[in-house]
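Recall that a protein's primary structure is simply its ordered list of amino acids. Everything else, from secondary elements to tertiary packing, is in principle encoded there. The following example makes that idea concrete.
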Amino acid sequence: MKKKLFLVLSASAILGIKAIAQKSDTINSDLQLSIDKKALNFIALGDWGRNGEYHQREVATEMGLAAKALGTDFFVALGDNFYPSGVRSVHDHRWLDSYEDIYTAHSLENDWYVVPGNHDYKGSVQAEIDYTNIDRRWNMPARYYAKKFRLKGDSTGEVLIVFLDTTPLISDYYFSPDHADVKAQDTSVQMRWLEKVLSDPSPTIKWKIVTGHHPLYSGGHRIDAQETKDIRDRLEPIFDKYHVDLYICGYEHSLQYIKPAGRTHYFISGSGSETTPAILLADGGKFSRSENGFIAFTVTMYNVEAQVISYTGKVLYQTKINKE
């Protein structure tokens, strides 16, 4: 398939930065969903909890259809799970309005692994942790945690996925009265824990994937924001040191794939409901679209395929990352 130039023109004026067209890996209006049910499949979705509004319900419908077709094993919720200010308790009505009554397809009943976002910190993050003991599919055992997933078809292969709590890693939130709980978190403990988890020498770990809420690179609103630089300064050296393959996040309300210098591939899946403008970065930008949707990942021993799917069910983009 021939490569085509792609540029998100509408965002450049809004963001006040220059967008430069680049070649993307695979851009085609006739892309078909690639299916491999013998592989490990998961879907990543961020910034979604808006009572079904801003196309949240349509995204949920297409997630159900894609999950059924792919044989999706689990889901990763990338933070800002409830707008505008998290939940107050495990009895908050938002559990029904923005989660239980929205993601109703049978194919969406597999495990959801959840990280907190900055809007969740405006409510009770502890309530989201406690909901793990109430809802069968909701998994948030702590503010940050990790899990190994067995690769299908190979009893010796595993994927290590780390679920980070990125909000306390950004200094601006310490000055916000809406994020008071941030001050109670010890980020040095989380960073030591992260290094310990990523340094696991087990030969069974074929892929290392880290997930969190905030991006290290972005073509969205926070492209030059101090918070983006802060989290990049804290996490990128660790990713480089321990050979992290993918970092998947939300926060920016768009769909992006960025590959700067180095080993790690960066994906943003933050348009589970409201969208905001985004451009294709001149340096490392592979794909960028301000459209509601999600990203499906298919993992084998030798590669990871990422498919960006819109709220209309259209496959917007596909790329395959081979194991180095």
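The domain at 5-322 is CATH 3.60.21.10 (Purple Acid Phosphatase; chain A, domain 2). The chain has six helices and 16 strands.
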